[in-house]
Design a protein that fits this description.
2 domains; disordered N terminus; four-stranded antiparallel β-sheet; alpha/beta
Length: 411
């Protein structure tokens, strides 16, 4: 397929996960939403949709317990609260992530400590995590970026060796696997997001899974103000807030679960098609997936080597616009630790808490500590992706990249 003709510039419209063109909404969601409205019960404490959604998801991934909540950030916050860090404890996380995975650490009084990433997969590794473990480390939070599983087995072994909790951020990795196990079920807690652009969506929403009974109770309580519903003498047992999902979101989520396998299968099929057409292009590195892993392609990313491709990913992205092919150099504009909230420690008033409890090494954000992070952000080009992409979209993208690769290739 490497000898295919360059694409011709033509009008082509791509489906978007920001509207119905790139989503799987249909009568199933409408029917369940109608049922909720007709019942008059929109709260999860009295309804059935949210519970059915969580129970169905638990069975799909093979987890003993699952609880739905208001957002992916809420899911991560509940996971951190279940780990129950003391003020000043450290939670190791990734330098390339959404702020929704970091602010919950601070809200629980802990210190986010950033591990560097592999420059191609953009995931943290056992080696980068090991470098930043300290006596104050309470947990490791591993993000399966873009749907590509991190090295879970090795990271779990590292966590067990140091007696650390392992939280999995699976917001972009529904149904991804390593060694035949779904991500989210290997660590102590797995966290998923139903935000608009994820594999399935309820607009917003999250879900947490665990196989540990004690962790499960902490998760369930934290999502609902730590009130012990069903206990003989319920009380508000500890500091927590209301992160409940509504029955409306639960209904949409439940209907979407029936379409999740289609979404994953289609994303993988189209990713394989694109990889086959881009294989062998000098200066272009395609997604790297471990032999024991299954990628679910929240996004499709390539690495563009600026020493071989004139202008690197920025130049290629600019060229692709003429073909109506959207792409995003860098993914995020800067590492998480360069954002103002962390850089200037803008937290509670002017207190800088909990950074006042941090070791100097824990907040050392010198670029020299993160070579993989900066190399990855300088070279990555992210292509939008959704389950409504079909062969004509992939062939157009591949032809555009191949055509412009020739114009930008040095020497």
């Amino acid at each position: 397929m490497n000898e295919m003709s360059p694409v011709t510039v033509e009008e082509i419209t791509f489906p978007s996960d920001q509207d119905s063109s790139g989503r799987t909404f249909g009568q199933e969601e409408i029917d369940l939403l109608t049922k909720v409205i007709q019942s008059g019960t929109l709260t999860a404490t009295k309804g059935t949709m949210v519970k059915d959604f969580a129970d169905t998801f638990a069975k799909m991934v093979g987890a003993k317990y699952a609880y739905a909540c208001a957002s992916g950030t809420a899911a991560l916050h509940a996971a951190i609260a279940a780990v129950d860090p003391k003020p000043g404890d450290e939670i190791i996380t990734t330098s390339i992530t959404d702020m929704g995975a970091i602010t919950p650490i601070l809200y629980q009084g802990a210190i986010p400590v950033f591990a560097d990433v592999d420059p191609v997969t953009m995931n943290v590794t056992p080696e980068t995590i090991a470098k930043v473990i300290s006596p104050k480390t309470k947990a490791i939070m591993v993000t399966h970026l873009f749907g590509n599983p991190a090295e879970l087995a090795k990271i779990k072994a590292l966590a067990d060796k140091h007696k650390l909790a392992l939280i999995e951020d699976c917001a972009q990795a529904f149904m991804a696997k390593e060694n035949g196990r779904f991500v989210g079920t290997v660590g102590d807690v797995g966290c998923f997001s139903l935000q608009q652009g994820k594999h399935i969506t309820a607009g917003e929403g999250g879900i947490v899974v665990t196989n540990d009974e004690n962790v499960a109770r902490r998760l369930r309580l934290f999502i609902d103000k730590a009130w012990g519903y069903g206990d003989p003498k319920p009380d508000h047992y500890f500091l927590a807030i209301n992160y409940r999902m509504t029955e409306l979101a639960g209904a949409v989520g439940l209907a979407q679960l029936g379409k999740l396998q289609f979404s994953v299968d289609q994303r993988r099929k189209m990713a394989d098609r694109l990889s086959s057409q881009l294989e062998g292009l000098e200066g272009i590195t395609l997604p790297v997936v471990a032999d024991d892993a299954e990628h679910t392609y929240w996004r499709y990313c390539i690495m563009v080597d600026p020493t071989k491709i004139e202008g690197g990913p920025v130049a290629l992205a600019g060229k692709l616009k003429a073909y109506n092919v959207a792409s995003g150099p860098r993914y995020i504009q800067k590492p998480a630790f360069e954002c103002q909230v962390l850089r200037d420690q803008v937290t509670f008033g002017d207190s800088k808490w909990p950074f006042t409890l941090a070791r100097p090494e824990a907040v050392d954000y010198a670029p020299a500590n993160f070579p993989g992070t900066y190399k990855a952000l300088n070279e990555v080009l992210v292509l939008p992706w959704n389950e409504r992409y079909v062969e004509k979209h992939i062939d157009h993208i591949a032809g555009a990249i191949r055509a412009q690769h020739k114009t930008l290739l040095k020497g």
